[in-house]
């Protein structure tokens, strides 16, 4: 069976300057102390144990240090291509996320620096096209959680959610944040969001026009949240993806039960990681 990408968040290790210096030293002290104890107790393989302990605990510390890069996915014309192709391309990109962490043969999403104000290891820039040459929008997704951070209109001008502006120089700050509480009054209202090809094309057309944001705020929020459901939530939750992807030509809506999955994603991610790590 081929390795697939689990739509789960990977717990975020601390990295800052102090952590990079202190963590290896602390690991070294603990490793040496435990090895000395075993050596004095007559454990004959203490040298092998020390090497194993250092490799097992020290290497992941340095794997958290990364240089942020952009990954571009070529224009996907949603006027002619199905959502399934877009989803497959995003999933393949998200799975290519060294250092690899797997759960029962399935990979987690990419690692993310826990320090506030730092970019993800990779910003996935998904270029979307509509039915005319002017209909061009680029979504910027974090490969750590598949969340949308910003979008660029047809003129290449970036419009970023509050808090992500430093990652997109000369960007305009959107008058709402990425929370569904701000975008639609709460996740419970997501069943009112129309999904499907026609809705996606209208969102691309409207957002591609320079000056389309930040006014009117309510209209821009409606367009952005629609694309978020079709990208971020479809990657995180199979039931949400299946609600519209297979019936792409029609206007569809997710159910109340599917909408209730959305706020549980982070908690479920940590429960899966804990289960894999501890068995409990």
TrEMBL record:
GO terms for molecular function: rRNA N-glycosylase activity; toxin activity. It comes from the Eukaryota. The keyword Phosphoprotein does not apply. It catalyses: Endohydrolysis of the N-glycosidic bond at one specific adenosine on the 28S rRNA. GO terms for biological process: defense response; negative regulation of translation. Signal peptide: none annotated. Keywords: Hydrolase, Membrane, Plant defense, Protein synthesis inhibitor, Toxin, Transmembrane, Transmembrane helix. The keyword Cell cycle does not apply. Its EC number is 3.2.2.22. It is an enzyme of class 3 (hydrolase). InterPro entries: Ribosome-inact_prot_sf, Ribosome_inactivat_prot, Ribosome_inactivat_prot_sub1. The chain crosses the membrane at residues 16-38. Belongs to the ribosome-inactivating protein family. This is rRNA N-glycosylase. It comes from Panicum virgatum (Blackwell switchgrass).
């Amino acid at each position: 069976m081929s390795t697939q990408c689990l739509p789960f968040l990977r717990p975020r290790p601390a990295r800052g300057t102090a952590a990079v210096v202190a963590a290896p030293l602390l690991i070294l002290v603990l490793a040496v102390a435990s090895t000395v104890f075993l050596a004095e107790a007559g454990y004959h393989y203490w040298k092998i144990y020390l090497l194993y302990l250092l490799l097992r605990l020290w290497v992941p510390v340095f794997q958290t240090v990364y240089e942020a890069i952009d990954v571009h996915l070529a224009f996907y014309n949603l006027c002619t291509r199905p959502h399934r192709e877009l989803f497959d391309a995003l999933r393949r990109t998200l799975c290519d996320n060294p250092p690899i962490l797997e759960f029962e043969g399935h990979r987690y999403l990419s690692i993310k620096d826990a320090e506030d104000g730092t970019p993800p290891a990779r910003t996935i820039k998904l270029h979307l096209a509509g039915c005319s040459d002017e209909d061009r929008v680029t979504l910027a997704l974090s490969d750590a959680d598949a969340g949308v951070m910003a979008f660029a209109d047809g003129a290449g001008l970036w419009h970023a959610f509050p808090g992500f502006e430093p990652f997109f120089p000369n960007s305009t700050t959107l008058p709402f944040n990425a929370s569904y509480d701000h975008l639609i009054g709460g996740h419970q209202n997501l069943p009112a969001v129309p999904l499907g090809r026609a809705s996606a094309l209208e969102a691309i057309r409207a957002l591609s026009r320079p000056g389309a944001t930040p006014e009117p705020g309510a209209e821009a929020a409606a367009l952005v949240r629609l694309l978020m459901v079709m990208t971020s939530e479809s990657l995180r939750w199979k039931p949400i993806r299946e609600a519209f992807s297979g019936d792409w030509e029609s206007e569809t809506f997710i159910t109340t039960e599917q909408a209730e999955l959305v706020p549980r994603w982070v908690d479920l991610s940590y429960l899966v990681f804990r289960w894999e790590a501890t068995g409990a």
